[in-house]
Amino acid sequence: MDGVRVGNRLIGTQAPVTIGWENIPKVEGGPVKQFIFTWFQPTVLFALLAFWYYAPNSIAKASTAIGIGIGFKVLLLALEWVNPRYASWRLTWKELTTDLFYVGLGYTILNLVDGYIGSDVMAKAIQTNFNWDKFAWFTGLPLLVQAFAISFIFDFGQYWMHRGMHNWYPLWLPHSVHHYITQLNINKGAVGNPVELFLIGLGIGGFFDFLPRAFLLAGAFGMAIGTYQHINVRFNSPRWWRFLFNTTEHHSLHHSQDFEATRSNYAGSYIFIDRMFGTCIDGEAELLGMEGGRRMTIREQMTFPFTEGWKTLKEKYGKGSSAHHSAVPAE
Amino acid sequence: MTVTAPLVAQPSTFVHIRPGKGRFVNLRFIDWIWHVRGSVPLPAGQTGDEAFARLDPLFHEVGTTYERSSGMLMFSKKDQPAQDKMSVFDSGVLQIEDDAGTPVLRYRLASRALLFCFLVPLLFLAFAQLTIALNAFEKPPAAGASTAAKDADKKKPELRLNPIDKALGAPEPDKPKDGKGGKPEKKPTPTSAYVFAAIFVVLYGAGRILEDRLVRRLFIRRLQHEAPA
Q1: Is B17 within 8 Å of B27 (Cβ atoms)?
Q2: Are the Cβ atoms of B188 and A90 closer than 8 angstroms?
Q3: A298: nearest Cα among B79, B4, B203
Q4: Which candidate, A296, A279, A280, A299, places its Cα nearest to that of A288?
Q5: DSSP H helical ranges for B79-183
Q6: Which of B159, B203, B211 is best to mutate for the A interface (most A CBs within 10 A)?
Q7: Stated pTM of the model
C-alpha cells in the first residue's frame, strides 16, 4: 500500500484508511433521514445545554444526569441499529455483553477505587497538606464559560495522558488492550484494562471550584460530543462540528490497523487540541485493531499488560538476553 | 484448519462425547448453562457429505480449526472475530445421525461467553458486598473534625451567579441551609453493583435463548437455501 502523505507522515501504508473529508461516504437515504443524521448531534448538544442551564435546582442533580446519560446511550444503540456506519461493526450479543461488563466495572469497582486513590482524592489531600484553597475565582464566571473550562481542562489533560500512552512503553502496555477492539460501538469506550481505565480518568479538576450547575453543563459537553468517539452510526456532521469536535471518523482512524494512523487524534472531545499540536488527521477507517484484527478475550484483556511487561523485562534483563529486545515498542 | 478422512455416516457416536460419566458432579445437569444442543433434519435427499460441504464455509473463519471424520465435525475457535457468525461458541461437535430413517444434523456447542455471563452477576454481588463492608469499616468522622469542617464551610463565600447568567434567567444556586455546613460526604453505594448483577442475569437469559435460535437458523439456512461456497 502506498499510503497518503499528511504533512511529514505517510498514513495507510499498512492498512486501508480514508483520508480527507471529501472522500468520506455520506448518509444514504431520503431527505428526512439526511436531515436527521446531519442535525442530530448539534441539536442534542444545544438541547442539553439549554436544559441544564434553565432546569430548576430540584431537577439539576447528578442523578438526573445519570438518568439522561443512560437514556441517551439506549437511543444511540437504537441509532446503531437504524443507520450503521459499517455492517462489519454490527453489535452482537457477545460484543454487547463484553462492553457492558466493562461499563459495570466503571460504575462499581473502579468507582470504589477512585474514591480512595482517584485524582480528586489526591487533589484534596494536596490542598489539605499545603493548606491551599481551591481556585475559587472561576465561580464568578458565566456558567457556560465555567462548563467549557471544566471540560477543556479535563480533555487537555486527557490528550497528554493519551499521547503519553502512545509514546511511553509502560503506559502503552495498559492502553494497548483498548486498541485490540475490532469495531466501534456505543460502549466500546469503556473496554480496556482496568489500570488504563483508572489512568485515563485522572485529571486536575479537583484543584478548582465551580458552581454545581457548571459541572452538569460540562457533563453535557462530554456526553453530547465525546460519546461519538465510539459509535457505529453514520452522521453527516456539519463542517464546523468536525473542525472543533472529535468524531467517529477521527477516532476510527485512531483505532485503525495502520500504525501511523493510530498516532493521531488523541483528544477525547475537542479535536482542535490535536489541531493545535499537529496530531489531527481528518479521515476514517473500517479495519480496526491490532495484530491484523485479533479479538482479545476478557481474560487476556485483564492480564495482557502484565504478561507483556514481564516478557519484555525478561527479554531485556533475563538470563541470556541481548540488549535489543524484539517486543514491538509503542512508538 | 485441518480436514481429515472423507465423511461417512455412521451409527451415533454423539452419545459418547457427552460429558458426565464418572464425574463427581454429573455435568449433564448443569452444562446446559454453557452448551447449546439441537438438531436440524437434513433436506430430503441430502447426504451427510453434502450437508457438511454446505456447512463448511462456517468453519473457514480466522481462528477456527476443525476436523471431519466418520460423519462428525469437531471444531474449536481461538480469538474468533467479533463478526464470525459462530463467534459466541469456542468449540463444538456436529454429527449426522439417523433418526427413524431421516438423517439429522445434531450439534453440541460450548460457549465460554455464556458461562461468563452466567457467573458474572456473582462478581457484581461481590462488589456490592465489598462496598458495604468498606462503608462499615470506615469510621464516622470525629466530632472535632466535623465542627472544623462546619467552620470551614461557614467561611465559604456564598455562591452567586454571574450577572450575564442572571440576565439570561438561569436559576440561582441553592444557599447553604442554616446549621448544616455544606454537603455531607457521599459514601459509595452498592446499588450500581446490584443493578449490573440484574442486567447480566437478563443478558444471560436473552443470550441463551437468542444464540440457540440464531445458530439453529444459521444451520437451517446453510443446509436448505444456500449453495456451498
Answers
A1: no
A2: no
A3: B79
A4: A296
A5: 112-137, 143-155, 163-168
A6: B159
A7: 0.88
Length of chain A: 331
* Helices of type H across chain A: 31-54, 62-82, 93-107, 109-117, 119-129, 143-165, 169-176, 194-200, 212-221, 239-244, 248-254, 259-262, 271-277, 298-317
Yes or no, beta carbons of B134 and A112 under 8 Å apart: yes
Q: Is B97 helix (H, G, I), strand (E, B) or coil?
A: strand
Cα four-point dihedral sign A123, A126, A129, A131: negative
Closest CA to A258 of A232, A292, A224: A292
Contacts of B162 in chain A (CB under 8 A): 140-143
Query: Tell me: the pLDDT tens digits for A184-229?
Result: 999 999 999 999 988 887 877 677 778 889 999 999 999 999 999 9
**Do the chains contact at B159 and A139, CB–CB below 8 Å?**
yes
Confidence tier at B143 by pLDDT (50, 70, 90): low
Phi, psi of B109 (to 5 degrees): -120, 135
> Crossing angle of helices A169-176/A298-317, nearest 10°?
160
Q: For the segment A272-329, what is each residue's pLDDT rounded down to a tens digit?
A: 999 999 999 999 999 999 999 999 999 999 999 999 999 999 999 987 765 554 445 4
Residues in chain B with CB shorter than 8 Å from the CB of A135 are none
Which of A88, A108, A116 has the most B C-beta neighbours within 10 Å, making it the best mutation to test the interface with B? A108
Residue numbers in A near B173 (CB within 8 A): 57, 211-213
User: Which residue in B has a C-alpha nearest to residue A53's C-alpha?
Assistant: B170
CB contact under 8 A, B81 and A297: no
Q: Report ipTM (2 d.p.).
A: 0.88
Question: Phi and psi dihedrals of B74, rounded to 5?
Answer: -115, 135
**How far is residue A272's CA from residue A12's CA, in Å, rounded to a whole number?**
22
For residue A18, which amino acid is it?
T
- Amino acid at position A90, single letter: R
Grid coordinates representing A91? Answer: 453489535
B203 CB near a chain A CB, below 8 Å?
A: yes
